[in-house]
């Protein structure tokens, strides 16, 4: 399954969002198990109508939208690292 580019810029230049699509390798992972880029901080999860404050033991679900905070000067680098992370996870998920 090929995943679309998932990192998007929100209306705020210092925020990025990652939608967790059906079949995403992020589904079922705990926040603490993800190797997030050091230039970014996961600050929220939109789950339907609910806003979830993420903790290490928060489980990521299909349909979630992960919201990351990053420095505007690092935004492009963070987007590239997240895309690479998702590609790696997708490959491991298929194997």
Automatic annotation (TrEMBL):
This is CPA2 family monovalent cation proton (H+) antiporter-2. GO terms for molecular function: monoatomic cation transmembrane transporter activity. Gene3D superfamilies: Regulator of K+ conductance, C-terminal domain. The lineage of its organism: Bacteria, Bacillati, Bacillota, Bacilli, Lactobacillales. Residues 3-84 form the RCK C-terminal domain. GO terms for biological process: potassium ion transport.
């Amino acid at each position: 399954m090929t995943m679309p580019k998932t990192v998007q810029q929100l209306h705020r230049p210092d925020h990025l969002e990652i939608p967790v699509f059906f079949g995403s390798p992020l589904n079922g992972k705990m926040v603490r198990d993800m190797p997030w880029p050091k230039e970014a901080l996961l600050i929220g999860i939109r789950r339907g109508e609910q806003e979830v404050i993420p903790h290490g033991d928060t489980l990521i679900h299909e349909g979630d939208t992960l919201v990351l905070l990053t420095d505007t000067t690092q935004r492009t680098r963070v987007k590239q690292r997240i895309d690479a992370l998702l590609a790696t996870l997708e490959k491991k998920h298929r194997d």
